[in-house]
Amino acid sequence: MIAADQDKIITVKTPEEIEIMREANRIVAGVLSMLQEEVRPGISTFRLDRLAEEYCRDHGAEPAFKGYRGFPASLCVSINEQVVHGIPSKKVKLRSGDIVSVDFGTRYRGFYGDSAITIGVDEIDRERQKLLEVTRESLERAIRQVRIGNRISDISRAVQEYVEENGFTVVRQFVGHGIGSQLHEGPEVPNYVQSKASPRILEGMVVAIEPMVNMGTYKVKVLRDNWTVITADRLPSAHFEHSVAATENGPLVLSRRQGEVC
Ligand code: MG
Ligand code: MG
Which of 14, 92, 175, 257 lies 20 to 30 Å from 196, alpha-carbon distance? Predict the structure, then answer.
């Protein structure tokens, strides 16, 4: 995700480029599926980062986040009230009842992949369960709007309406993004409808759609490490992300995981 209000170039990709991006995203999907199996009480977020990077390199890709604007790790791990950009640490161990967002990016043959999921550690309470389900479903609804001729605001509206109907809020300060030979390209993909004009979705456009959904206020702040984003009221937050191409046959989810229900 990127901070809002950064003007970046919008590109469209050829079918061949989309195929490479599908490979880049398949590796991301493999990392996230592997992490779903590894997440358990007592495991450190540092260990998750190591496992993710190893899997990525073993599959011929580079971890995209490592060193990006100085980010010190390969995996963003954000627990409970942390929204995004949590830094892995040997000192931070998962506990039963936590929800943990894992966000991973790859660079493969000159193109990027980017996807995220939020996982419950052991048993989680009903409110957290609902938060995960609503966030995931808002992403699915948004994906269905990735159609040639629609506007980016159709994606935003799909997320915002579903989330707010369910009593939660969408983060405004960080947004989804175009993706291609750069990790963060235009257009911005906000999770709320803005009053300004919104770009049309063109054939070959690839967007990383990433609802960040809070249980309480939509407001967030950045911790003193200059990375970790937390909710202003410290209530939990969830995050799911897919990289999606607009094709003449409709939305093509490049980062779909094996066995993922949709
Ligand atoms: Mg992203
Ligand atoms: Mg991401």
Answer: 14
